[in-house]
Write a structure and sequence with these properties.
Length: 245
Amino acid sequence: MKKVYPDPVAALAGLLRDDMMIMCGGFGLCGIPDELIEAVRASGVKGLTIVSNNAGIDGVGLGKLLETRQVARMISSYVGENKEFARQYLAGELEIEFNPQGTLAERIRAGGAGIPAFFTKTGVGTKVAEGKEVREFDGEHYVMERGLFADLALVHAFKGDTEGNLAYRLTARNFNPMMATAAKVTVAQVEHLVEPGQIEPENIHTPGIFVKRIVHVPVREKRIEQRTTRKRAEAAPAAAGGGQI
């Protein structure tokens, strides 16, 4: 089956609809499928539920979909870098389901593994547990969390072959691998597209059986979410009476 598509718009053709759930890989701005996000924006679909660790920043990543009011609900663990997100939430225009980061990761992993629910101690006795079943196991209380399984997963990989096998690089190996397993259809954008056999089997993080469509995105801007630098130290004064050496 041909998996490689010429561009992000073609890769998403026939997959997008209003009110669907989309998983979107990435951590901050690292490993986000930004070209696929741009294609979602161009499609005009709305009422989306987005599962993502965070919501990008204003005008970048998922921030683009927030600007165009295409997102109705976010299932996330951190959204503190996006002013438009905060504005819409405080105005009652956007629904948020907050998750502890580890819980969100496990909900996605469980969905991909066919596990409908699991119990965790994280969040017991807090707002996270409100409205959820709490059980006691061996004298400890645990809250039940549901697995997540989306209509569509959008992921970014450093390298992929034409059969859909993917390899991620450094921090981009965050939510991408688990999201690739937890949707009806997974579409991957890859920086380096190679022929089958050119990725060593032990270096494959997502087997091709999970990936339905691939788009080659060789040139992309890699942004820094928060640039933090140390002040340059002042030059030490020259020694008194010293001459040139």
